[in-house]
């Protein structure tokens, strides 16, 4: 007898999208996932619903949150294998307690490993690839309900990782791990925009993970956040005056929602509690926002920032905050960082799609011609025709999907419009 539950909540996290799926099923075992997939003509996986668009949607959605996470660390191989619905924050705490770490985390620890992997989610740091780049193996349920294991030795694996849910329902993910480490976070203010654009490489390379949080108007950026690895005994202080920024008075930070954020002020702590901006045990925000992001080739970032500053007042009318982060190149075919180092130019907008969609065409007209690729999990307007030239391996990816899923069980309207095209 099936133990599958049905979830009646139809909204994504931000409540800017309502799934049109007739059912959202929550099986309690991998066997049940196999039965659900085999029995349905159109089915896809749903993670923790943190995407801002219709990417997950189809007739029947399957969320794997009731299947035990069961993390298995293989110290000799340097990997952990975990259930795909596991939240990064839960995995991170477990790994740290066992003496291990992931290379990086996104701003939010609440997102699922499977969902983040599928969309090329990233954190920051010149030497840090996307979270997907740490994936060394996947177990997935294919269209006929069979279980398939793939790893880095499997032909086409680099196409399957940032898979947009098109290859099947991923049940378990294997990730590279390393020894655990401590990190401190320090916030700075007063960095002039001109200095950021001029010294972009020095500033973004000044810590393990660097974020610039800002509006586009004005002469200075709002915040520079440096996340620095702390080795035994130091450093005592992190200074950014040589970069043109001064330490932020603590009163300037987070006075509205202080308990949401991970600890700043240079207090060292485990990577799991410092690399995300938000704390796992609190609500990240009310969800009243729309996010968009474009992964811009690093060698075009000065042009991009200068042009966006030119329309800064228009952007700021509907913007809550922008974040700039760097991401190292990976080899994953549909990754925003595929084959080139990139800068994530992120916009957290007010929850007003109509106003966002009035400014987004101008942003896309600047960033797409510079090679900017939209984050698959965030809100964007461009369709397949404009996106195709940005992904040299798109045709190969489409052929791989057609081989794995000839009947289109995992295809949906979003993929037809944004990836497959005509
Ligand atoms: C507050 C907030 C902060 C964010 N911060 C960052 C950030 O720092 N960096 C960044 O890059 N992005 C960030 N994002 C975006 C987020 O990481 C992506 O949207 C990610 O895909 C969300 O994962 P999810 O589990 O919610 O996926 P969902 O939104 O549920 O699904 C996304 C896609 O993944 C597929 N998928 C999910 N699970 C599986 C599975 N088991 N098997 C196959 N396919 C699956 C779905 O079919 C769908 O195509 C943020 C989003 C929010 C709301």
TrEMBL record:
<dbReference type="InterPro" id="IPR016169">
    <property type="entry name" value="FAD-bd_PCMH_sub2"/>
</dbReference>
<keyword id="KW-0560">Oxidoreductase</keyword>
<dbReference type="InterPro" id="IPR036318">
    <property type="entry name" value="FAD-bd_PCMH-like_sf"/>
</dbReference>
<dbReference type="InterPro" id="IPR006094">
    <property type="entry name" value="Oxid_FAD_bind_N"/>
</dbReference>
<dbReference type="InterPro" id="IPR016166">
    <property type="entry name" value="FAD-bd_PCMH"/>
</dbReference>
<feature type="domain" description="FAD-binding PCMH-type">
    <location>
        <begin position="17"/>
        <end position="180"/>
    </location>
</feature>
<dbReference type="GO" id="GO:0080049">
    <property type="term" value="F:L-gulono-1,4-lactone dehydrogenase activity"/>
</dbReference>
<dbReference type="Pfam" id="PF01565">
    <property type="entry name" value="FAD_binding_4"/>
</dbReference>
<protein>
    <submittedName>
        <fullName>FAD-binding protein</fullName>
    </submittedName>
</protein>
<dbReference type="InterPro" id="IPR016171">
    <property type="entry name" value="Vanillyl_alc_oxidase_C-sub2"/>
</dbReference>
<dbReference type="GO" id="GO:0016020">
    <property type="term" value="C:membrane"/>
</dbReference>
<dbReference type="InterPro" id="IPR010031">
    <property type="entry name" value="FAD_lactone_oxidase-like"/>
</dbReference>
<dbReference type="InterPro" id="IPR016167">
    <property type="entry name" value="FAD-bd_PCMH_sub1"/>
</dbReference>
<dbReference type="GO" id="GO:0003885">
    <property type="term" value="F:D-arabinono-1,4-lactone oxidase activity"/>
</dbReference>
<dbReference type="Pfam" id="PF04030">
    <property type="entry name" value="ALO"/>
</dbReference>
<dbReference type="InterPro" id="IPR007173">
    <property type="entry name" value="ALO_C"/>
</dbReference>
<dbReference type="GO" id="GO:0071949">
    <property type="term" value="F:FAD binding"/>
</dbReference>
């Amino acid at each position: 007898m099936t133990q599958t539950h049905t979830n009646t909540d139809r909204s994504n996290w931000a409540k800017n999208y309502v799934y049109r799926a007739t059912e959202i099923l929550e099986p309690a075992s991998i066997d049940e996932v196999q039965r659900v997939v085999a029995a349905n003509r159109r089915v896809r996986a749903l993670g923790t619903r943190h995407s801002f668009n219709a990417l997950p949607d189809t007739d029947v959605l399957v969320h794997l949150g009731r299947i035990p996470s069961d993390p298995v660390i293989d110290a000799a191989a340097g990997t952990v294998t975990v259930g795909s619905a596991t939240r990064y924050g839960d995995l991170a705490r477990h790994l740290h307690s066992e003496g291990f770490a992931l290379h990086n985390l996104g701003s939010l620890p609440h997102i699922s490993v499977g969902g983040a992997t599928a969309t090329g989610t990233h954190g920051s740091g010149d030497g840090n690839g996307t979270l997907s780049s740490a994936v060394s193996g996947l177990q997935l349920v294919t269209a006929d309900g069979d279980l398939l294991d793939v790893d880095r030795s499997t032909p086409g694996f680099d196409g399957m990782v940032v898979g947009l849910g098109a290859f099947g329902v991923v049940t378990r993910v294997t990730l590279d791990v390393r020894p655990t480490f401590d990190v401190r976070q320090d916030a700075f203010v007063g960095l002039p925009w001109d200095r950021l654009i001029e010294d972009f490489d020095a500033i973004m390379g000044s810590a393990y993970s660097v974020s610039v949080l800002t509006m586009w108007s004005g002469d200075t950026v709002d915040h520079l956040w440096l996340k620095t690895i702390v080795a035994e005994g130091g450093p005592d202080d992190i200074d950014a005056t040589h970069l043109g920024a001064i330490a932020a008075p603590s009163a300037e930070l987070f006075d509205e929602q202080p308990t949401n954020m991970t600890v700043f002020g240079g207090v060292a702590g485990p990577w799991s509690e410092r690399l995300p901006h938000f704390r796992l045990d609190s609500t990240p925000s009310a969800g009243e926002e729309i996010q968009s992001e474009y992964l811009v080739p690093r060698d075009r970032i000065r042009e991009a920032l200068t042009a966006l500053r030119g329309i800064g007042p228009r952007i700021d009318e509907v913007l809550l905050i922008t974040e700039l982060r760097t991401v190292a190149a990976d080899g994953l075919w549909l990754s925003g960082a595929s084959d080139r180092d990139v800068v994530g130019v992120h916009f957290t907008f007010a929850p007003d799609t109509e106003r966002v969609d009035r400014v987004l065409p101008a942003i896309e007209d600047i960033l797409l011609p510079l090679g900017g690729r939209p984050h698959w999990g965030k809100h964007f307007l461009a369709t397949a025709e404009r996106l195709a030239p940005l992904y040299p391996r798109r045709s190969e990816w489409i052929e791989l999907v057609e081989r794995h899923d000839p009947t289109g069980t995992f295809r949906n309207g979003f993929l037809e419009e944004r990836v497959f095209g005509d």
